[in-house]
Amino acid sequence: MVEWLGSFGKSKSNGVTRQLYSTEWRCAQKALEKRMNKIGLDVYFDDVGNLFGRLTGSRENTTTILTGSHIDTVIDGGKYDGAYGVIAGMIALQYLYETYGLPKKNIEVVSLCEEEGSRFPMTYWGSGSITGVRTIEDVQNLVDLQNISFIKAMQDSGFGQGKYRQPKRNDLDCFIELHIEQGEVLEREAMPIGVVSHIVGQKRYEITVIGESNHAGTTPMAWRKDAMYVASGLIQLLIQRAKETNSDLVATVGQLNLEPNIANVIPGKATFTVDIRHSDEDVIDQFSKKLFKEFQSIADRHTTDLKIKNWMDEKPTKMCEKLIEISELILTKDQIPYKKMASGAGHDSQMFSPFCATSLLFVPSHKGISHSPHEFTRTEDLEKGIRLLIKLLYELAY
Amino acid sequence: MVEWLGSFGKSKSNGVTRQLYSTEWRCAQKALEKRMNKIGLDVYFDDVGNLFGRLTGSRENTTTILTGSHIDTVIDGGKYDGAYGVIAGMIALQYLYETYGLPKKNIEVVSLCEEEGSRFPMTYWGSGSITGVRTIEDVQNLVDLQNISFIKAMQDSGFGQGKYRQPKRNDLDCFIELHIEQGEVLEREAMPIGVVSHIVGQKRYEITVIGESNHAGTTPMAWRKDAMYVASGLIQLLIQRAKETNSDLVATVGQLNLEPNIANVIPGKATFTVDIRHSDEDVIDQFSKKLFKEFQSIADRHTTDLKIKNWMDEKPTKMCEKLIEISELILTKDQIPYKKMASGAGHDSQMFSPFCATSLLFVPSHKGISHSPHEFTRTEDLEKGIRLLIKLLYELAY
């Protein structure tokens, strides 16, 4: 079924490109709609293109247990990221219905329209619309690289015209997301399941070192204000401090740009990003504060100027303790080894978490590879995840 | 006169843009031709656009003493780079002629058509054509950024059609180039004149560190193969080694590019340039050899791959000892302080040096600034340079 869904938007390199409101995206949602219908679910879209399949609870005026993940992918991404959570939800609902009939509470599987932000500069559009964090105003002025507006793309897909129900929900009891880890921890530790306690917080900074651009041949070493040299010292320090500070903290310099970036000119300016993540905001803050003090003294020692700009500040998100406990009970009873862990990546769960009880569950990613055609999870691991989901939904809804 | 010549191709920022075979370049050469005629020189172009003004020697079948520099500039460059050497030569020839009449040997001033390589990927086109190192075959397939071919640009300027004499010369006795230092050494040491002993050799390398691109959130620090981290360690080492090795050695990382260069992805690949210069080739070679051994062990320690590619290897060029001695005698006699020094930048002199006795003489550059509208040399320093040139030409030709 992973292969089947992966065929919508299959790329030349055997990956998947299924961007929001593209033809491939539309075909995939339509195919899922058909399949949900076939297994006996009540199926409907909302007006941003989220697709739901529902087992209606037998209790009157009851709340809804929602499970699922996102259907969009990055360009040339994998078959599992997002898709696995949607497929797992459908299989779970089918199994529960066929085995136990209708639940007491409503259970719904959702194929969220968008999470990756890979077409428009907008992430979590699906989950954000359901939880009311995102509204139509947020996308009013967005365009993609082909200069197609968000609104036009949405309307061309048949959404955003009031034909379907409004996305904001008030009946959600909890949200359960099954996802691939996108890291290598579970595989290395031979754990088939990860029970996520937190999604880490992340702060991103732009660091600019301003030195003096000069001739590479006529400027003696002692007189230089070499922005690249100073920047390389800061990067060395950052990574060393990150390694020694806390085993769960990660810090990355993913982007660096020099000016003028010419082989025979001493760089006058070096700009680089710093991405720092941890599940405890205080750890990030203390680490950054201490680090940037050291940055400043290095810059001062080389008589270069330093600018530090914080441009992203995502708070850590705690998953629901009660749902974690239920998962742990199920796993212990079934003798499935698991790891309670933080998620280093962002997920739709972080939009749901402040809104309703939320649980994020991982299966291993082979070699940690994700956002790549080489994304892979073994079938037995996929199955273990679905079995856990089934039992968890049963506990909550029957 | 510097201001007058600088008016041809004057840029908005009060700099000069006078690229090879441009309208500005053509106007400047035509204006120089007129001025050379006016001061009584025999004036002629060669077929690549080098402009010569000649005082014909009284001896029969005598050789020629050539002085001058280049007329082309980088984009938004300064008024002094190249131009000073041309102007100084004209003033010197005028003074010598008016004071002493015709010399025994021929003396010529040359306004070389091109040195900078800032329009086409070709440097030293003027001096290279005179010395036979460059020929028409070398420029046959070159185009500029506007896709105009070298040949077409040359022909549109009236050259390259056999209308003028062939550029290759066999009558040159020596070449004397007066130039701004383009560095800060003379100013800092309060020396009005630099007598150049060598033009340094330079080797340029492209260093590639290949690590593993991975998710910045889900990959623990201990498992990373971070190409940026490893590269920053190599850069730190390079600069530290350069500082401690030899006070005359300079090493520069001017260019660095990451892949994929995205804030939330650990760089899988870092490519950077290394530019190493010294007047002794052995010093460069020993330094590089030792350094790259250390590079390799750092890369190995982080289990990253390392590629080292040498893409430029310019040998050091020695200036003529005898001409240096004559300059030193003149300066000592006139009680002008001077510094015998290496040139960290390349000059037309390095094309002439293997071909005929060659001397390169510097005047100070304020703050070492060059290739910039802020290029500046004090009038009294310009004058000291011209006085030295006059006396040197007198020694050689009268």
From TrEMBL, chains A, B:
Residue stretches making up the Peptidase M20 dimerisation domain: 201-300
UniProt GO MF annotations: hydrolase activity, acting on carbon-nitrogen (but not peptide) bonds, in linear amidines; metal ion binding
Domain of life: Bacteria
Cofactor comment text: Binds 2 Zn(2+) ions per subunit.
Taxonomic lineage: Bacteria, Bacillati, Bacillota, Bacilli, Bacillales
Pfam families: M20_dimer, Peptidase_M20
Cofactor(s) needed by this chain: Zn(2+)
InterPro entries per the UniProt record, alphabetical: Amidase_Cbmase, Bact_exopeptidase_dim_dom, Peptidase_M20, Peptidase_M20_dimer
Species the sequence originates in: Metabacillus litoralis
UniProt protein name: Allantoate amidohydrolase
Residues that, per the record, bind allantoate: R204, N264, R277
Keywords for this protein: Hydrolase, Metal-binding, Zinc
UniProt binding sites for Zn(2+) 1: H70, D81, H179
Family membership noted in the UniProt record: Belongs to the peptidase M20 family.
Residues the record lists as binding Zn(2+) 2: D81, E116, H371
